[in-house]
Amino acid sequence: MTFTGLIGRICMFPLRAIINACVALRIHPNILTFVGVLINVAAAAELASGHFVVAGIIMVVANIFDFIDGKVAVELSAVSKFGGFWDSVIDRFSDIALFIGLIYLYSHMGRTDYVMVASLAMMFAIMTSYTRARAESLIAKCKVGFMERPERIVLFMIGAFTNRMAGVLWVILVLSIFTVADRVIHTYRELRHDSREALA
Amino acid sequence: MKNPAALPARILWNAFFWTYERASWQYDVMVIAILAFVWLVPPDWLKDPTAHGTGPIGWILERMR
What we know:
The complex is a heterodimer of chains A (200) and B (65).
Chain A: H1 3-24, H2 29-48, H3 52-75, H4 81-108, H5 112-135, H6 149-162, H7 165-199
Chain B: H1 6-16, H2 25-40, H3 43-46, H4 55-64
């Protein structure tokens, strides 16, 4: 077993209990998704105030909701196309809220350089999701690139708990640029392959 | 004989054009590299607005002087 696989398994124990509780209470997954974004906005407000540890704790809570909504939907047999759409849209709000919290903090500190780093990281984080969504309207699957939402969220938490947000923002920025590039390259290759097959 | 530059180039290309699953050993290596960057690079080098100091690398460099 790999190191990250082991961490995933350990984290599943408490999450399993929370999922079971939500299923027993028959909480609709779309409500869980919405509660998640509200809590993420609170985390963003704490980031904006420079209270990183508090923001980190709130992010953990918010992302439990984010993580379990899909699992609860499956167990309640409440999986729907709208649920998937709602989840994706709300996730973008959560992502953007956290970045805006940091942008506010850095602009308040007069640090234009990090306002730019956080803004660019936000732009490429959004483009990571957009390129995949747009690509998958043209090709079957576009799941390439490292920096997806779970990685971003865990990095945000690490940055908040250990006060290393600058390093985290650089990592998110650089790897998000790579991820967007990967998705463009992958989509180009797949479409070229398809057009060659059509000609043959 | 194979080109000796081919392996490092392939490793770099595979790290850039990422197609590995989560919880694979390649994923572990990437995570360790990211954590090393985040935790070991001195905040002063990055001009971190909220953290200061030279961090573990700075401490080692100081000892080596």
